[in-house]
Specification:
The protein is an alpha/beta fold. It is about 40% helix and about 15% strand. The protein has a single domain, classed as LmbE-like (Rossmann fold, 3-Layer(aba) Sandwich), CATH 3.40.50. Helix 2 links the parallel strand 2 and strand 3. Helix 1 packs parallel to helix 2 and helix 7 packs across helix 8.
Length: about 270
């Protein structure tokens, strides 16, 4: 395997979605490159919080063993029914021209001689518009670069829905699709993530729980405050490593090139 490039929407997504896999690959000697589409802030690029979040990303990447970090420079598009106007200095990622954004990523894939690109499933997991755009941009960039295998980070839908039902993840944002014309039928809550039967691979990352927990903890700005997502992150990073490994020790990927209905496989074996 050559370089592995992981495209994420915002700083901290790299830890949440594929932190263990990135740590595993780096430990195995692969060059790992983390690319974020946005700085994770709704303000303009001069806002100090934008710089804080990118600094946290670099600390997270160091914990995971990544060799390079890049930001495509788009603005965070936000989540929910509101669609924020573009800031004066740049465009929101969800509004970015597909070929322009994909072309920039494709240039990086070629420069890195990347053989694998990690992105997100077609639903963007829980429907965040920037996450959906990651899926679209990643697929197009791999096509433009040629010879790049795409693996799409996801979770088993049944597991997530079960956790939501019992209230353990009741603070998870409800997925919302794009706004539709008045009168057009809508699904109020489109399905999240991927049905288990459609997931191609799982990665056992229990050996890398310490690195994954450290990467999550590096995003201190996302641990602060009274909101439920921050409280959940604070709880997670305070867990003992063995318990954190139990809760976050598997990561899952779709494979667009896999034969539908193929076996649910372990993708990587951790170095002995």
């Amino acid at each position: 395997m050559g370089s592995v490039v992981a495209l994420h929407a915002h700083p901290d997504d790299e830890a949440l979605w594929s932190g263990g896999t990135l740590a595993l690959l780096a430990a195995a000697g692969h060059r790992v490159v983390i690319v974020v589409a946005t700085d994770g802030h709704l303000g303009d690029g001069a806002d100090p919080e934008a710089g804080v979040r990118l600094a946290e990303l670099r600390a997270s990447a160091a914990a995971l063993g990544a060799a390079r970090v890049e930001c495509l420079g788009y603005a965070d598009s936000g989540h929910g029914s509101s669609f924020y106007p573009d800031p004066a200095d740049r465009q929101r990622f969800a509004r970015a021209d597909l070929d322009e954004a994909a072309g920039r990523l494709a240039d990086l894939l070629r420069a890195e001689n990347a053989s694998v690109l990690l992105s997100y499933d077609a639903r963007g997991g829980y429907g965040h518009r920037d996450h959906v755009r990651v899926h679209e941009v990643g697929a197009r960039a791999a096509e433009l670069a040629g010879g790049v295998r795409v693996l799409e980070a996801t979770l088993p839908r049944e597991t997530v829905e079960r956790l939501v039902r019992v209230g353990r993840l009741g603070a998870l944002p409800r997925p919302r699709g794009p706004r539709r014309p008045v009168g057009e039928p809508t699904e109020p809550h489109p399905p999240m993530f991927t049905p288990r039967r459609e997931i191609a691979y799982r990665v056992d990352v229990r050996r890398y729980a310490r690195q994954k927990r450290a990467a999550l903890a590096a995003h201190a700005s996302q641990l602060a405050g009274p909101r439920a997502p921050a409280r959940l992150r604070r709880y997670a990073v305070r867990l003992p490593v063995p318990l954190f490994a139990v809760l976050g020790g598997r990561e899952y990927f779709n494979d667009p090139a896999a034969t539908p209905g193929s076996a649910f496989l372990d993708l990587f074996t951790a170095p002995g």
